[in-house]
Amino acid sequence: MVPADEYSLGEKKDRRFVLQQPVEISRFPVTNAEFRKFVAAEGYDQQAYWKSGWEVKCERNWTAPGSFTLRGFDAATQPVVRVSWYEASAFCEWLTATDGKYQYSLPEEDLWEAAARGLQGFRYSWGDTWYRGYCNSQRLLGRTSVVGTFPNTTSPCGAVDMTGNVWEWTSSLHERGRSGRVLRGGSWDHYSVDCSAWYRNYVTPGVRYVNFGFRLARTLRPGP
């Protein structure tokens, strides 16, 4: 749970973000096993879940994320990767439709950063000092790690792997591109500066890389 409060964001901690209501954020990135439920539910065939990207999905003949057939990245408890922003968003729509109680989404980037840094404003999820081996980065393993393998990455709100392992899609647009979506957190093949909680990466939403994954934000659905 990310508590309602005022957070300091940015490299110099000179930007303020006020969270009016607490928001739940998933403890781990979404795994292959979790995403397989969406595939098994024929989520790739139901346009209702694809608020955007349906045409791209059809043109590229996507039927599952790339990690499902990528040796070394396909374990059930590894984060799903080679998944585009469109696929991650469709997963959220499907989960919302099947849950009934909660609204699921990709976290907005300021919320993501607040969850990673906490009220302390940490540079990394564990503090301000970089320690090699605290997270899955710098090609330490040469691939993604099973979620939770690096407990030192636990952020103040209890979320794990917010430093390293996979770049995480957010819902936010980047101002430098008309359609570029922001990713946060660094990954298994990136270095300390890229893994900083304030660091912003961005690409177009149809890109699928072996180090791109996502986690969820969750709020109660509004009443009738």
From TrEMBL:
Residues 19-218 form the Sulfatase-modifying factor enzyme-like domain. This is Sulfatase-modifying factor enzyme-like domain-containing protein. It holds the Pfam family FGE-sulfatase. InterPro entries: CTDL_fold, Sulfatase_Mod_Factor_Kinase, SUMF_dom, SUMF_sf. GO terms for molecular function: formylglycine-generating oxidase activity. It comes from the Bacteria.
